[in-house]
Specification:
By secondary structure, this protein is of the alpha+beta class. 28% of the residues lie in helices and 27% in strands. The chain has 4 domains: 133 residues, no CATH class; 69 residues, Dna Ligase, domain 1, CATH 3.30.1490; 133 residues, D-amino Acid Aminotransferase, Chain A, domain 1 (2-Layer Sandwich); 83 residues, D-amino Acid Aminotransferase, Chain A, domain 1 (2-Layer Sandwich). It is built from 13 helices and 19 strands. Helix 1 crosses helix 11 and helix 7 runs antiparallel to helix 8.
Length: 450
């Protein structure tokens, strides 16, 4: 997420991509047995650690980017290092037909695993694994693990609690949905992430404005949508449930409670994500529901990141969305450093072997963890950043990332793409951690000149 986000992002046009011509070939001489490799599709953020895990295990890696080259170079913080690594090959392609021949019986490489490195790589990774006869998720269901409208249809068809929803291709569709369901309603882009282009609307005027914005604005991955998903707004506490299918069963890796807030110009902004005990009665019910959702959308191996609200009106958990990939926000790093479970190596093992049973006892956290986020609430020139030294001295402080610097012209935060800072915390005492959470939010301040 934040730690690898560039300050200035291009607005790429999606094109059928070509191999990156100045990458190094994989190790191996002509005439020798084809080199084995691991394939990682769109390794942004946590996905970059999947590539590192494979290289640490002495695996050659083929990285496939499905998005525009300029966009990927800007978004992948390890791009230059990957390009310089003789055991990494970088390709740009967005269909199986464009690349599957490279891995076939007469191809250049012998792939041993294909994994999605982030949200946009989920579909291609699953189809490529199936094409090559390698372990992967359910190819017939994978669209529901990426497209929010398909997800809604599949989850509802499975008989699991869902909000009312509709795919809208015209403003009149959204208008009709609003009149039928009532306000507030939520409009979102079908294949976005990180609350990008998710709009909570309280009137027909707001809904019409949001519909047009979503249809005409490039999303987090530089793509535009030809339709908008309209959903009934679900209230209640929101949780992130991270699941892991080890080939035999689905485990709840961890559960996190979201703390979000609204401003005059944005809604549903992240403030804090705090580890909670998924064995408590309330959260256990959310975890059981998340597992049912994951099965419905075709999880067969590896991670699923499931966001669920515990709706007080219906007195049951209801899905917000699910992605068949590792979570962002540094949550996998919290897991790696505070449990005996390595999210990256475990993911590599299950996709290489078709399964690798894990001991649930290894999922126990040694510390309570949190990731916190800032927001720009006043636009203008950034004159000073205050409070970082005090934050670094807090008992639970681990690290922070800052995506802005003095002299930048700040724009108001509307979603995850505009977050100016994040802080990671961990402590044995929940009381101390929660105290530090509030201290961080009080202490970090921006001096902005309009």
């Amino acid at each position: 997420m934040l730690q690898s986000r560039s300050k200035t992002k291009p607005r790429p046009n999606f094109v059928t991509a070509q191999p990156f011509q100045d990458t190094h070939p994989l190790a191996g001489e002509e005439g020798l047995e084809r080199p084995a490799c691991v394939v990682v599709v769109d390794p942004f953020h946590a996905g970059e650690s999947l590539v590192s895990a494979a290289l640490d295990q002495n695996c050659a890696v083929v990285v496939i980017f499905t998005l525009d080259k300029n966009f990927c170079v800007a978004e992948c913080s390890d791009f230059d290092a990957l390009r310089a690594n003789p055991n990494v090959e970088i390709l740009f392609a967005n269909t199986c037909d464009a690349i599957s021949g490279l891995f076939g019986d007469t191809g250049k490489w012998a792939a041993t695993a294909v994994m999605a490195g982030s949200e946009p790589g989920v579909v291609l990774a699953t189809h490529l694994a199936a094409r090559l006869g390698l372990p992967g998720n359910d190819v017939e269901m994978i669209a529901a693990g990426r497209n929010k409208h398909e997800m809604r249809k599949v989850v509802a068809a499975a008989g699991l609690a869902s909000p009312r929803f509709q795919l809208c291709t015209d403003p009149s569709d959204a208008d009709s949905f609003c009149r039928e369901v009532g306000f507030p309603i939520v409009l979102k882009t079908p294949q976005g992430a990180g609350t990008n282009l998710v709009r909570k609307c309280h009137s027909l005027a707001e809904a019409n404005w949001a519909f047009n914005e979503i249809r005409t604005t490039r999303d987090l991955f530089g793509q535009t949508a030809d339709a908008v998903v309209a959903e009934e707004f679900i209230g209640g506490d929101e949780y992130a449930i991270n699941l892991f299918h080890d080939g035999e069963q689905i485990h709840v890796v961890d559960a996190w409670k979201y703390d979000k807030f609204d401003t005059d110009f944005a809604s549903n902004l992240y403030r804090s994500i705090i580890l909670c005990d998924f064995r408590t009665d309330a959260v256990a019910g959310v975890g059981d529901y998340a597992i049912q959702v994951a099965r419905a959308v075709g999880l067969r191996l590896g991670y699923a990141h499931c966001e669920v609200k515990l709706c007080p009106k219906r007195e049951q958990p209801i899905l917000i969305e699910i992605g068949l990939r590792q979570p962002g926000a540094g949550l996998t790093e919290h897991c790696r450093t505070n449990t005996a479970f390595d999210p990256y190596r475990s993911t590599l093992r299950v996709f290489q072997n078709g399964g690798a049973p894990i001991d649930a006892r290894n999922l126990a956290y040694r510390k309570i963890c949190a990731t916190l986020f800032g927001a720009v609430v006043k636009a203008g020139a950034l004159v000073d950043i205050q409070g970082l030294r005090q934050v670094e001295s807090l008992p639970s402080y681990l690290s922070h990332a800052m995506s802005v610097s003095v002299g930048d012209r700040l724009q108001l935060t509307r979603d995850m793409t505009g977050i100016p800072w994040s802080v990671r915390l961990a402590h044995e005492s929940r009381e101390q951690l929660l105290e530090d959470v509030e201290a961080v939010h009080r202490t970090i301040k921006f001096v902005v000149q309009e």
